[in-house]
Amino acid sequence: QVQLVESGGGSVQAGGSLRLSCVASGYIHMGWFRQAPGKEREGVAAVVCDGSPRYADSVKGRFTISKDNAKKTLYLQMDGLKPEDTAMYYCAARHSCTYRIGNYPEYLYWGQGTQVTVSS
Length: 120
Description:
The structure is a single chain. By secondary structure, the chain is mainly beta. The protein contains no helices and 11 strands. The model has no long low-confidence stretch (mean pLDDT about 95).
């Protein structure tokens, strides 16, 4: 089985930065999702099948996804945070690669979530 452990969330003022980490018990294909109160869960970032990062339009230019295969860790560097980024952030994993972000039903494994709160 695959277990995912997330960390790095917190409270920050608009314009600030946070780095989220997700440690996996074994490496499989992973991505980041978020869900704000009253909203649907949405894909934020993922590394797609050709190895390139893919981002939601709302975070392009501000968020950076990266991974450390040796440490089996996925990162999400979040810069220029906005109040609308406030959400519970999740890392998720799947056995096969994907060509796009999102589509959460295809992800089999999920972390517990880490809260990101951005104040104006």
